[in-house]
Write a structure and sequence with these properties.
By secondary structure, the chain is mainly beta. It contains one helix and eleven strands, in the order αβββββββββββ. It has a ten-stranded antiparallel β-barrel with strand order 1-2-3-4-5-7-8-9-10-11. The chain is globular and about 45 Å long.
């Protein structure tokens, strides 16, 4: 299949996946709904966390070899809390992952964009778009795996008052099937205020 056709098909699939993720609160027709104010969705995360990370070594290969890392995540508000910056630094048998994630709030849509840069290559990924609903964050975008463009899904799910799970998955078939390739569990350190929920 030609690259342009693949790109168009993936863009259409991403639009369907994002629309389905929006849930029943989004009307199919009628006047435009006023987006909820999600500017404080990440307030609970500000501070320092112990991170335990599992990563699938070769995503979308059929292999199931996982590697593990431990380290820290530090989340800081920037620009008057209209954005936040995550500093991730973990190490394991497969080496070190050090990166930064910039999250930007979009008031017009009530959504966030998530941008990740791995310091090993200095490159920033395409942004993922999404929001929190019923206490869980769901974000979707595109990525490239071994030269092919795939859909990517990122979920942020509370475990309890002090622990959160961050899970990334890829889909190579337009969102019909997802393969989880990244699972991180963050546990709040005792050097910041713990919040069980969000505003």
């Amino acid at each position: 299949m030609k690259p342009l056709v693949v790109a168009i098909a993936l863009s259409a699939s991403l639009a369907v996946v994002q629309a389905n993720a929006a849930g029943p609160d989004v009307p199919a027709s009628g006047p435009a709904a006023v987006p909820r104010d999600g500017q404080h969705d990440f307030d609970w995360e500000i501070g320092s966390w112990d991170t335990h990370l599992k990563r699938l070594r070769e995503p979308l290969s059929g292999k199931t070899d996982w590697v593990e890392y431990t380290g820290t995540s530090v989340v800081k508000p920037v620009m008057g809390a209209r954005a936040n910056l995550v500093e991730l630094d973990v190490r394991g048998s497969a080496g070190r992952i050090a990166g930064v994630s910039l999250r930007l709030y979009q008031p017009a849509s009530g959504q966030w964009t998530l941008h990740f840069a791995n310091l090993a290559n200095g490159l920033m990924t395409d942004p993922m778009h999404g929001a929190f609903k019923d206490g869980q964050g769901s974000f979707y975008g595109r990525d490239t795996v071994n030269g092919r463009v795939v859909l990517v899904r990122f979920l942020i799910v509370p475990i309890d008052a002090a622990r959160w799970r961050f899970e990334q998955a890829y889909s190579a078939d337009g969102g019909r099937r997802w393969e989880t390739n990244w699972i991180a569990v963050d546990t709040r350190r005792n050097d910041g205020p713990a919040k069980a929920g969000r505003r």
